[in-house]
Design goal:
Aspartate Aminotransferase, domain 2; alpha/beta; 13 helices; binds pyridoxal-5'-phosphate; globular; Aspartate Aminotransferase, domain 1; four-stranded antiparallel β-sheet
């Protein structure tokens, strides 16, 4: 694996910003080094730019040393940083599966990088051959979201690892939904393959989308490069504090995951009974992709009932489909009640 060739020259040469907190790292001192306000503790102080306390806790949970962990303002920060570290604007490209998470394309556009999209097979499986074919000598990143948003399925580990072995690119496996999946994370392979990078987040299973905290887990080399380019204080003290508190309550999170999975199965069974539902795709995530007759009409009907789902009916391979996030039992019941009424008002009456 030749990182030298993958990384942009200016990033290789970059001397990162050195903060006051970098130059003196001890505690219990009088801090007159960072031009902070001496009043209003503890919020007067800049946060630890390396987030070592939080990384140690996350590392213990994931079985990873802190050197293999990057923390950012959501996974979205990690995605953007990868472009800035590896992709020369106007020159390099990335490859992504399609359909998938929209941020890969948006970050590509912002950074003036071409994003080549490789369609999934009709059964939503990976077209490994087409992915290999799409990669050229200007390709720096390959995005594979697994479980995938919006198709809700996850991909075979062997197929992904084959690509990791075969391709001289950073393979980014976005595992935002891994806690809801029956498949294992690919985390254990980051020690074996320096070009494998895993994205995970506190936004889904951890119930903390509001504090903005995402993780990139990978080889020391890639993590060090991301650390070099990020804003020095990319995580604020409030986010650090909330995350440290949340990590003490892993049992609560496990309870939420179990509740969501139970509700997912229940909702899937109920949805399949509606006459306007063509199929509910098997889900490995906290949402269901549901193919229906007249998706837009159902979407609008639900909006009127103040229930908002995601209309994915114009997305390639998801034609006629709605993406429905699993809510609480009460919320899901409100949804199925509304759909029952829709069926009575529009589907049954049409047949008369
Ligand atoms: C929701 C989601 C994320 C999470 O992004 P954050 O910035 O961490 O909130 C990442 N990837 C995918 C595919 C998602 O659907």
């Amino acid at each position: 694996m030749d990182f030298g060739k993958l990384v942009r020259q200016n990033i290789r040469d970059l001397v990162p910003y050195s903060s006051a907190r970098d130059e003196y790292t001890g505690e219990s001192a009088i801090f007159l080094d960072a031009n902070e306000n001496p009043f209003n503790a503890p919020y007067n102080r800049y946060p630890d730019p390396h987030q070592l306390e939080l990384k140690a806790k996350i590392g213990a949970l994931k079985g990873l040393p802190v050197e293999n962990i990057f923390l950012g303002n959501g996974s979205d920060e990690a995605i953007d940083l990868l472009y800035r570290v590896f992709c020369e604007p106007g020159e390099d490209n990335v490859v992504s599966i399609h359909p998938s998470y929209g941020m890969y394309q948006v970050c590509a556009d912002i950074n003036n990088i071409a994003c080549k999209k490789v369609a999934l097979n009709d059964d939503f499986s990976l077209d490994a051959k087409a992915l290999v074919h799409a990669v050229d000598d200007k390709t720096k990143l390959l995005f594979i979201c697994s479980p995938n948003n919006p198709t809700s399925n996850s991909f075979d580990a062997e197929t992904i690892l084959d690509l990791v072995k075969k391709l001289n690119v950073i393979v980014v496996v976005d595992e935002a939904y891994i806690d809801f999946s029956k498949r294992q994370s690919l985390l254990e392979y980051v020690h074996e393959y320096p070009n494998l990078l895993i994205l995970q987040t506190f936004s889904k299973a951890w119930g903390l989308a509001g504090i903005r905290l995402g993780m990139a887990l990978g080889s020391r080399e890639v993590i060090a490069l991301m650390g070099k380019v990020k804003y020095p204080y990319n995580l604020n003290v409030l986010t650090l504090k909330f995350a440290l508190d949340a990590l003490k309550n892993k049992d609560k999170v496990d309870g939420w995951i179990a509740a969501v999975l139970e509700q997912r199965d229940l909702l899937e069974r109920k949805l399949k009974k509606f006459r306007f539902v063509r199929q509910v795709y098997p889900s490995d995530a906290n949402f269901l992709l549901v193919q229906v007759d007249k998706a837009r009409k159902i979407y609008n009907y639900l909006v009127e009932k103040k229930i908002i789902v995601r209309d994915r009916s114009n997305v390639e391979l998801c034609e006629g489909s709605l993406r429905i996030t699993i809510g609480t039992d009460t919320e899901n019941l409100a949804l199925t009640d509304a759909l029952m009424q829709y069926q009575r008002d529009f589907v049954d009456s049409c047949k008369i």
